[in-house]
Design goal:
binds 5-O-phosphono-beta-D-ribofuranosylamine; Rossmann fold; 6 helices; alpha/beta
Length: 225
């Protein structure tokens, strides 16, 4: 009779914070459902009750919570309630996926090294909103998205992965956004996988490390390569 080898390693518990469509959440759900996924989605939190992403999570049997920021007098009070929800599932990683709230430095520090964000530009270029419009207006030839560890500054923090696309001469913001989104759906699950496998970390020096080596620049996935 052969011995049964049991692995005691649990999949990493991921919490995903959303506000809207949740297409990145969907990409993370799809990745988490693969047999070899090193992470599972333990909770999805939205600050908006009408976020389509909540339906995506419910369809996949993932617990959801809606926590509206309205009714909280301060950001800190809202985040205390957010932390109460998060603490119930003790996530190993938080993925911000279109979560349209600015977070306080205290919240960010609490989760430092355990919180990722995805932003639709090649950071450090174009932090903030309306990135696709701004890229077209500037006449850039390359655009994309960045997964980064979250630090206290808006849309900044050590970059991990970038997905790049070419800007076409007849692009409008919607068409460009759709191609960037395709890359987002590739790079976010990949970064989560690397983190869950213990390959990716934020060093105490504030630099991203992949397989123990500091990443001086993000890993690039080029849609046109
Ligand atoms: C994405 O463009 C992401 O980069 C940004 O917000 C958008 C969220 O889209 N942070 P979705 O809700 O994942 O479809």
């Amino acid at each position: 009779m052969s011995a049964v080898i049991e692995s005691h390693q649990q999949p990493l518990r991921l919490a995903v914070l959303i506000s809207g469509s949740g297409s990145n959440l969907q990409a993370l759900i799809d990745a988490s459902q693969r047999a070899d996924s090193p992470f599972e989605i333990a909770l999805v939190i939205s600050n908006r009750a009408d976020a389509l992403g909540l339906e995506r999570a419910q369809r996949a049997g993932i617990p959801t919570q809606t926590l509206s920021h309205r009714g909280f007098e301060t950001r800190a009070a809202y985040e205390a309630a957010l932390n109460d929800l998060l603490d119930q599932v003790a996530p190993g990683l938080i993925a911000l996926a279109g979560f349209m709230r600015i977070l306080t430095a205290e919240f960010v520090e609490h989760w430092q090294g355990r919180m990722l964000n995805i932003h639709p530009s090649l950071l450090p270029s174009y932090p903030g909103l309306h990135t696709h419009e701004r890229v077209i207006e500037a006449g850039d030839s390359v655009h994309g998205a960045t997964v980064h560890f979250v630090t206290a500054e808006l849309d900044s923090g050590p970059a991990i992965l970038q997905g790049r696309v070419r800007v076409l001469s007849d692009d409008d913001p919607a068409r460009l956004a759709a191609r960037v989104l395709e890359q987002e759906h590739r790079i976010y699950p990949l970064a989560a996988r690397w983190f869950a496998e213990g390959r990716l970390a934020l060093g105490s020096d504030g630099r991203t490390k992949l397989d123990g080596e500091p990443l001086d620049s993000p890993v690039i996935i080029d849609a046109n390569a």
